[in-house]
């Protein structure tokens, strides 16, 4: 076993590798950018080396500096994690040339599987089923369009050197092809430095099923069963589970043996994932092979009882695979939810900001357990625009899928993040849909269930308002003196009192009235509805609310977290973000000026799709921005005329920056 390794990555996966290395007694070296100087992964390792500026191209993609850091610190091997350089054959080759062990497959295997078109040809020779498509080297747009017409729409354009959903577009009609191809190539060149694409028939209602494979230097290769990763948005995974619901033993063996054949065809060593598109009738087609550890590897660990990072280290050190195929077993069911900083209601637009509150259910970290949370950030950390938007992975295990689903719902309910938008509430709704709960899975599940997933109300106003009032009363109670004259709760020696709260939720404003009776009871009036109100608070964050009387009384336990004027409320039924408005402090503030179109997040301006003087209609694409390694199209909020472009293509713009001015059409 190695004595010291360098982890050429950041965030959650760097922490994950460090945890197993520490358990095995292996020293670790972190590399970090200027933006990550105080990041958790740096603290998790024994040493740290600064390698450059915040942007990945200035730090985590600078493999020469990483190799220098490994040699300078005496590391024997380099673990690439996932993303960044994990599938870069030049980096793997450079490690070998520098006398360092690359904890991954040989550079030749990365090269063979990294180019999707070449890998398709290899798989065809190996007898692995393929989706009909074009995988040729000729990238003339006219030829690509002709091939798409031949294959028949819908087709999928995919970056040949891509992964992670980047450089991928579904095209449903011939007239959409050219624009989709241009966007796909643009994203591919920015993400991978290569704009070559392949085209495939877009299988209708497909399932995304992948097989975890492992090879060693002795030539042995096994599969550690399958994962179903069908629930996706923008071709990126949202929920992953193992085993795949409805999978028969015969089909599992067939897919596993095909995956092993694919790995052996390129002399594979280490952890890899062979991804298949599966039709509802069980037919499956090779899609690609990811020559690295996958984000969703914990669900495989949960059902097999194996530590895949430990397997990686042992195999890279020259040891044989820890288990043979016939020794591998599955037990129970596991589901992983990717918690991301994003706004599902705005097309999953990435969010940035500070994790003012990050509270989790009872869990273990980076090891197997009923509830596991793998994260590379702590409360108080910043989610920056430079890196991936994932905050954490929540992994649950149960004896059955039903038990795992129940644990997933409870764990998401108890995940409280404040300070930036996340997809936690969306994940909870997604897991509760009839399709997911009933295992009716395919990659269009989110679109099919959009009525249940988007535009859903959060907590009822009466509960959210009562929670804000309870939080305020608890805060005031914690600061009062011992005499009644210092009380701030409206106490009167004789008679009743009333107190007004001005609350806002989004654009809606509400007046809430708290009344105190001379007998000591309280009542709330919310949206014209009066109800009895009582509260028992534990500190300022946990409150037991009693709303109403008699048989209609509602008992609700809530958690509240206040930052500035905003109060985040969490309950079993959902969450709400309320603003307790100080009317005097905001006196004189007017509405925002019209005629502006602003950046919804910090990023790079990739293209303007309209020029000054153009007449545009509501919903028309006007600009393309790149943030967190993905392209995002910004559309016109209304009809009008473009008055002025305020930035140049290629500029970095901040969150809320005005991109262009719109004026009313004459």
TrEMBL record:
Residues 1-451 form the Biotin carboxylation domain. Residues 586-663 form the Lipoyl-binding domain. InterPro entries: ATP-grasp, BC-like_N, Biotin_BS, Biotin_carboxylase_complex, Biotin_carboxylation_dom, Biotin_COase_C, Biotin_lipoyl, CPAse_ATP-bd. Keywords: ATP-binding, Biotin, Ligase, Nucleotide-binding. Its cofactor is biotin. Residues 120-317 form the ATP-grasp domain. Pfam families: Biotin_carb_C (PF02785), Biotin_carb_N (PF00289), Biotin_lipoyl (PF00364), BT_MCC_alpha (PF21139), CPSase_L_D2 (PF02786). This is Acetyl/propionyl/methylcrotonyl-CoA carboxylase subunit alpha. It comes from Roseateles subflavus.
